[in-house]
């Protein structure tokens, strides 16, 4: 298994950051057929081959994920896409 751990700073209010992460969750559901659920300030996501969470921190979000065997081969592409979406949604 391969892991991803990305922290991305932002200057949004907590409510706006949570809303932006909600939009990210919708994209994950549409593009990758993941199941998502909020638990406090953490959005958990899962599907076959990947399990992770997006945690809302003061002034930042942290994305942690465990990639299964097949997705491990595409780790660089997955990390790049996560960074792109975080920049798009959070600045």
UniProtKB/TrEMBL annotation:
InterPro entries: PHA_gran_rgn. Pfam families: PHA_gran_rgn (PF09650). This is Polyhydroxyalkanoic acid synthase.
